[in-house]
Design goal:
The protein has strands at 7-11, 17-22, 27-33, 39-42, 49-54, 58-62, 80-82, 88-91, 97-101, 106-113. With 114 residues, it is an all-beta fold. Strand 1 and strand 2 (17-22) form a beta hairpin.
């Protein structure tokens, strides 16, 4: 089992993030998602961020079960869409779980950082 990776942002002269830097190795989990089956993944101790990479459209909700958007959500509780062409970093803000769901069979990679 790996350790939580160190994470830092590299900023340009305008204080805009231009890259991410991590130590090699670390805590990486993978989930094989069944179609339309919500899964809740436990955040490892010491993690502050998670980078989610997926093989297709997948919804993520930090700290709660995720749901595929099938109607309007206007109360702030919606899940975030992650597409396979763009990994997405989430701040965990003390959350103990990450909810994840996909409308079709997908694989998700969750990389945890301190």
């Amino acid at each position: 089992m790996g350790a939580i990776r160190n994470y830092r942002q590299i900023k340009d002269g305008n204080r805009e993030t231009v890259a991410f830097s991590t130590a090699s190795g670390g805590w990486v989990d993978a989930r094989v998602l069944a179609a339309n089956t919500a899964e809740v993944h436990t955040v490892p101790t010491g993690a502050n961020y998670v980078l989610v990479t997926v093989t297709g459209n997948t919804w993520v909700n930090v700290g709660a079960a995720a749901a595929v958007a099938s109607a309007d959500v206007t109360n702030g509780a919606g899940s975030v869409l992650v597409v396979n062409t763009l990994p997405r970093m989430f701040a965990l803000n003390g959350a103990a779980t990450v909810g994840i769901i996909a409308p079709a069979i997908q694989t998700a990679c969750l990389e945890f950082y301190s």
